[in-house]
Each structure stands twice: as structure tokens, then as C-alpha cells.
Amino acid sequence: MPELIAQIRNNLLFERRDEYNCSATPIDWSTRGTPTPIFGSLCILVCLLGIIPYVACMRILWELRKQACYKMMFCLGMLDLGVLVGNIFVGVIFIIGGMFCHSPKIFVAVTFLADGCFVSSCCACLMIALNRFVELFNIRPLLKIYQGSGPWGIMTIPLAYGLFFNLFTPFSLSNSEVHVFLFDPMIHDGKYDVSTYFVSAN
């Protein structure tokens, strides 16, 4: 029966974990990976096309930042831009046929950017929804936390949430052979159960 990977760990020391030990098997990693220039280029193009309107909208949100919800939406936009920029690098990985064991540190850095911003944006959406709820029903005791610089402080919660995911929970890795993010670095065949409860909860 596969061994469940640790659900809480120190990801800064990921190379010490057996599930990420590229030298643990006799696989010649230079022969692995599937270059897909068309798909990778399409990923980059879609991300670039997404960045252009995002930047334009961010400028407007910044001008409207006197209102709490626009401060929070500006922060959400920054996180979404992080996801798009991260996935530009993923497009490059698909173009060259990259695999985790080709360059582990680069793959983890791309994951930290794309996945970290993604889970942070999920939390940011919740923060904005709570703000809308409080203002819609005019819950006066809670309205005070949205005054002044309060919204900026509130949006540190999504940042902390994303940082927790990056540093302490199992992370996914882009994979050119299957064209998705996988929690399995595909080093050990069936040795580990790479399920992660945190992503399921997110």
C-alpha cells in the first residue's frame, strides 16, 4: 500500500525528502519529458492576453482605492497577475519538455509563484465576499475594520494563507508529459500516495 506523503513539512528543505530525490531511481532524466512547442506557446499567449486587460483594470482599481472593496480587489488583481506570470513560465516548461528532475529548484520556484498566488487569490475572494456581506447588511461593529488602511491589513491574511501553503504543505509541479500540475514528481512509481488534504479543503 502506498505511503501517504507528509501533510505538514518544511518545503525549503524539499530536496531532503525521499519523494523528491531524483537520484533515488536509475531513471535517465535526460530522456524524459515531452516538448510541446505549440501547446506551450498557446499557454504563454493566453497568459499575455490575460495580463493586458488586468493591468488596465488594476489602474482603475487603484484610482478607486478610497473604497475598501477596491483596495481589496486591487490586491486580488496582483495575486491573479502572479498566477498569470507563473503560468508563462509553465508555458516555457511545456515548450522545452521540462520535468521536475531536470531542474528541481526552478520547478519549485515556479510552483511557489503560480500555486502560492492561486491559493492566496482563493482566500482573497473570501475576504472580499465577507466585505460585501458586511456592507450589504450594514453590520456596524465590523464596518470599522474596513476604514482607513484596514483593508490593506485584512489582505495580509490571503498572503499568509498562500505562504503557509508554499512552505508547509505538499506542492504540485508542472509536468510536460501530462500537461498539468501534479503532486507526484513521477520519481517513484506507486511508492507514495501524493494526496493532500489541504488542497482538497481549499
From TrEMBL:
Residue intervals passing through the bilayer = 38-62, 74-100, 106-130, 151-173
Q: Which keywords label this protein?
A: Membrane, Transmembrane, Transmembrane helix
Please tell me whether the keyword Repeat is annotated for this protein: no
- Identify the domain of life: Eukaryota
Give yes or no: UniProt keyword Transmembrane helix: yes
Name the UniProt record assigns to this protein: G protein-coupled receptor
**From which organism does this entry originate?**
Pristionchus entomophagus
